[in-house]
Write a structure and sequence with these properties.
Blueprint lengths: L2 H23 L2 H12 L20
Length: 59
């Protein structure tokens, strides 16, 4: 196997992995967990966290 063939096989492997990741990320099974993760930033835990503004007294 020469160097060009090896590089071609590595390129095919990387391209196949790319397509597998794209298909996995857009699959319908993953949609609910991705939507949950995307909307988690909007959830507020008011009982556990108290918003406190820190001040810098050293200035």
């Amino acid at each position: 196997m020469d160097y060009g063939t090896f590089r071609g096989l590595i390129a095919l492997l990387i391209m196949a992995l790319f397509f597998i990741i794209v298909v996995w990320s857009y699959s319908k099974k993953r949609k609910s967990s991705f939507d949950e993760a995307a909307n988690s930033i909007f959830e507020e835990d008011r009982d556990d966290k108290v918003n406190k503004q820190e001040t810098n007294n050293n200035v």
